[in-house]
Fold this sequence. Notes:
By secondary structure, the protein is an alpha+beta fold. Helices cover 15% and strands 46% of the residues. It has 2 domains: 1-83, Thrombin, subunit H (Beta Barrel); 85-176, 4 Propeller (Hemopexin).
Amino acid sequence: MHSRVVIRSLVLPDGYIAAMDDGMISWRPNVGIRRNIKLEFPISTILAVGGANGKCDSIWCGDTRGNISQLSLPMLSVLKKFCLNSSSIRAICAVSSSSDKILAGTSDGEIWALGKEIPGGSIRLFSIGSAITSMKCSDENIIIQSGWSRYTFDWTGNEIDHHDHNKIFISKKIKRDNRRSKLLKFQIDNGNLPESVLLDLPVVA
Length: 205
């Protein structure tokens, strides 16, 4: 018998959402009735959005097959569903508190805009060519995290800024390796190198 595993969760003031590895979504309120809905595929990211009264009244769920569903709270009724024919949805962010428009990022690096304000409901904006880790946006820019790299784009997909933190780690690794080499050379020159380290060093003829 398959035992469900929680793969995503989201804590809200009135309760919490638990998403299972078989596509089950469960709303577990602090007070009241627990409700469940079974989606076709497991979700990979989740976002809660507020309504006119300031309370969270729906959630957006992106799944492992490129589908995005908006579910009502607390009933978990399907309000909207989009099929992007894309890879796994890795990040979702709301464009603003006064709009139902959202952005979605995929594991292939695609950025999509979705909502009733958009012709056809969804449109692919651009791609960065690497998996999206997280993102946020403002009126002018979209800020995207991909691994250790952070990008800033305008809404047309033009890159404004790029910070590659991998270069920092590579630089620090080179410095550590250089310090270790100098220390080993000093120990060799002074005959203080442990035998265990000597055994790992190449034999020089």
